[in-house]
Amino acid sequence: MSDLSPREASPRKLSRRKLITGGLAAAAGVAGLGVAARLAQKYGLVPPDHGGIYGLGETLTYASQRLLTRHSLAREFPRSQISKPPFANEIEPLTDQFKRLQAGGFADWRLSVNGMVARPASFSLDQLKSYPSHTQITMLQCEEGWSYIAEWIGVPLSHVLDSVGVLPQARYVVYFSIEPDTWESIDMADALHPQTFLTYGMNGDELPVGHGGPLRLRLPRQVGYKSVKFITRLTVTDSLKGFGKGVGSASAEGGYAWYAGI
Amino acid sequence: MISHPRFYWGETGNDLTPTLFKLPIPASRNLVPTGYKYVLPDQNGWSRYLHFQAAWVVVFTGLLYVIFGLVSGHLQKNLLPGGADVSWRSLSTSVASHLRFERPSEAEAWSYNVLQRLSYLFVIFVLFPLVIWTGLAMSPAFVSAFPATVNVLGGQQSARTLHFFVSLALVLFLLVHVVMIFLAGFWSRMRAMITGRAATPRAATNAATNAATNMERT
User: Fold this and answer.
1) Which end of chain B has the smaller Cβ count within 10 Å, N or C?
2) Cross-chain Cβ contact A261/B140 below 8 Å
């Protein structure tokens, strides 16, 4: 008798009641997930790169941060904490087109704004600089692990979007660099956020080329790769499906998360 | 970590600032001064996706475990050390027997000893909350809503350094844990962990007694 295994001796057995409760709980869980997915779609809590094996984690991160941080402001620092000198990471070799514009002191640099806007427009740097300039002393942190604090000078993106009249159905702003295959997009919560700047100055001076000058989209609530350098075009849209592979950004196509607020 | 194997204390840190310490490994990025002449391939994209998905798994399973542990009394019964066990004498006896790599006695094999209880409680209620906190304290969006979570740690780079050490402690716990399982009998321990049923002599004796009483009844 002593060779009875504990399993056979166990009084716990799968009863009919347990089976039914378990089944009901599982059904409720699946239904709950379905409802949650529907609600998330409706309130814009699903990122464009929600497909694939990491989609669930990405959606949870994006949705929870959208609910928690829609209006919160990135930390700003005292002037004494500005990193001296600021660290400029590696950039791709500059294109001929960029070099031509640079030789002309960027006088011919244009930022075109199109898509779901009432009045598509094209801005010169001087025009952008004629708007009330704002500054923020915020941290740029790279997904690699390094970081620095700088004073960023520019015009809030919301100001430019207001001036072209964004249509009510707009959901994303796609922004393009002069560098080939370099583009990102953000939702309207980030696009209209008061700290999202079209940046043309840094630490009281022009924005150096190494930091994305003459024009960089600065987004202090997401890691560095969302702050694209050398911005030439903004497209306002209600869907990211028509852009590239439809996952929202060049980095998402390269295997990096679209939402980088982590 | 491999893309920037340098660690700092405070708010900021980069290739131009002094480090707290450097890991003696090559990096997956060009500009990092590692002393190596080559650069490892970039694996950050998928590994970041995996990391943040795994973080959700840790949070959900951790919450479930703690809630069920409290409700079922598992934490109070099996993990909270008894009053007499939390004395220096009993702790030092336990430490000494561990250092001698003694196999557990029958009674110990049936329940957790005081060192096990304390280290499990430390992992559940100190290391895991800390690794989640220091991780969130690196998130620029999260700290915009809850700036105190990074400010009290001394800054974003401090949070990164602490995150590194806490995860190291968790990996160390895992390794020691697995080694102990091998020492205590791999298959019986694995079966106990997965099914929740221990095949100890005591269980077998109980089973035999139960069977015997049942037979008497019939």
Assistant:
1) C
2) yes
With CB atoms and an 8 Å threshold, state whether A58 touches B46: no
pLDDT of residue A3: 46
Contact criterion met (CB below 8 Å) for B148 and B142: no
Determine the distance from the C-alpha atom of residue A183 to the mean position of all C-alpha atoms in its chain, rounded to a whole number: 11
Tell me the pLDDT band of B96, cut-offs 50, 70 and 90.
confident
Q: How far apart are CA B30 and CA A155, in angstroms?
A: 33
ipTM of the complex: 0.88
Which sequence spans correspond to the domains of chain B?
6-217
- Backbone φ and ψ for B12, nearest 5 degrees, come out as -125, 160
φ, ψ dihedrals at B100, nearest 5°: -85, 0
SS3 B212: helix
What residue of B is the nearest CA neighbor of A1? B208
Dump pLDDT digits (tens) for B20-49: 999 999 999 988 989 898 999 999 999 999
Confirm if B4 and B27 have CB atoms less than 8 A apart: yes
Q: Provide the residue type at A90 as one letter.
A: E
- pLDDT: is A214 or B86 the higher one? A214
Q: Which domains does chain A have, with CATH numbers?
A: 14-67 (no CATH), 75-253 (3.90.420.10)
